[in-house]
Each structure stands twice: as structure tokens, then as C-alpha cells.
Amino acid sequence: MDQPCHRPPRPRKSTAACDGAASRRAFLGGLLAGGLVLPRIAAAQAVDPTTGQAVYGASTAGQAPDLGVYQIDPAQDARRNISSFTNRHWREFYPTLGKGVILADVASRALHFWSGDESTYLVFPSSIPASEELTRRGRTEVVRKAERPSWTPTPNMRERDPTLPQRVEGGAVDNPLGVYALYLSWPAYLIHGTHDTRKIGRKSSSGCYGLYNEHIARLYPLVEVGTQVTIF
Fold it and tell me: Region annotation Disordered: residue ranges (predicted)?
């Protein structure tokens, strides 16, 4: 599959820099207002050795950043990075928690999770489908879980890219499903990890929702088969 291109931020005039800084402050302020606790913004810009990209915000190099930490300047490339975040609650979509609730917010490029007893709430940045045509919205549920999942491209994927392999075994470095996968009742739609961290926070998938491997590893044992899922 085509990978998003990455370019270093271009020098900008002081007014643009101020606008970009204001946008970031407003975004982080919205997260704090929504109840999320974020680490203090680092004074010096770092480079993530895993991706080779500049890290904006406080994140340990080589580890998955929390929501609100960008791997390239959001003012430079707002089209493909997280541009807005809206705090959500499961009661907006379901009368009861049941076995748990996952909300995949396409606009915010974020995935929310509540456990069935409401003792755990997590929110992670995610990749989203590359186009509206590939985006399916509505209610579904988790029907299967897999560790080190294998990957078989769908016929539509192979039509778009005939060079794709017939199958990639679980654990392979070129397996786009990462270390864990949650299968939805919609065929070929998953929530999964990814070894390609450049995809997170971007329109980069063929319909699935990808998380950093560190994040899916945290989420996987908490999600039960039968967990309710809404993509909106």
C-alpha cells in the first residue's frame, strides 16, 4: 500500500509560527478541558528514531505518544494529522455498557474504550480509512480476538494494488496488523496494531482502525468478545 509522504516542516514567517503555536495550545487546552491529563510540553524538539520524524509534545523517543502529541507539526500538515478532538461518552450511543463500549471517532482520529464495569476508560490516537469510500460507519461489535494475527488482503485491496502478497503470517515485520487484532462483525474490518507508526493519526488504512502496538497491547486484554463498537 502507498505510504504517506513525510517532509520536514518548512520555515515559516513569524505570524504563521504564532498561528501554529496557538492552534496547538488550543488543541491541548481542549483535551485538558475534556478530562485528559497530558505530560508537560517539551521545550526542545525531539526526533523519534523509530519514524525519523520530529516529535511535537512530550513523548519518550521511540515510544507511542499519547493523544495530542504529534509526530509532525500539525500546522504544517493538518490535513493528515489529528486536527480536532471532541470528548465523547458512551451514553451518547448506548443505553447500557454491556460488556464494554468502543467508539471510533473518525473526525478526531481517536478511539475510546470503556470497560463493562466502567472502571476503565482509555483513549488512543488511531489511523483512519484513507478515503470516505473506504469508511464504514455504524454499530458493530467485537466477534473475535487474535494475537499475532495473519493478514490476507481482500480482493478489493488486491485490485487496487496487485503487488500485495497472498498472505502474511502473524509476527512478520511486514504484517500491517501488528501484534494484536480485534475483529468486528463487519467482514474485513478490524481494530489492530501496526508496526508502521507513521500511519497513526492519519488517513492511511483500507477501512480498519490502527493503534500503536503499545496501545493495542494495553487494550487487547481488556476487551471482551461482545464489546459494542460504534464508528462515527
Answer: 144-169
